[in-house]
Amino acid sequence: MMYAFARDGGLPASKKLAEVSTQYRTPTYAIWTSAALALLSTVYAPYYLVLAIACAVFLYISMIMPIAAGLLAEGGPKWREKGPFNLGGFSKINAVIAIIFGIVLAITGFFPPNEKVFYLTIAMLIIMPIVWYAFERNRFEGVPEGDKITQRQKMIAEIEKKYGEGD
Known about the structure:
Elements: H1 2-7, H2 14-17, H3 28-41, H4 45-73, H5 91-108, H6 115-139, H7 147-162
């Protein structure tokens, strides 16, 4: 995941983390950085417990966000037609139920003895918008659209050709 985010310019030091080793054909810097961060997270057991529970809470929140965005966008100017697989008239009620249960699951991660997860969540809610507006908003281009997708596909094909892969 670190490589994918770096490839799309979504991480600090993205250029270095997105490099692929010509010898091993792997994103070496992304792999070793991920391994070092994983090892560092296990140094002190209470921190690891908080990290593990916080990851679960943030996972629930990350699932709630696109469901809520879809609920708000459905039927609007950006999303007039549904895809081939849809729930018809049940999609909105299903989204509301999913959001409610996702919030309940996230909140359960705050109960004792996990109060530190609550404090971490509040800290992230404060810190992340500051970092976004101070640094990343002007640097990160976002998800590729239109011609950028074609350019990205061409770039990937060139990389694959360089390593003897692809067509």
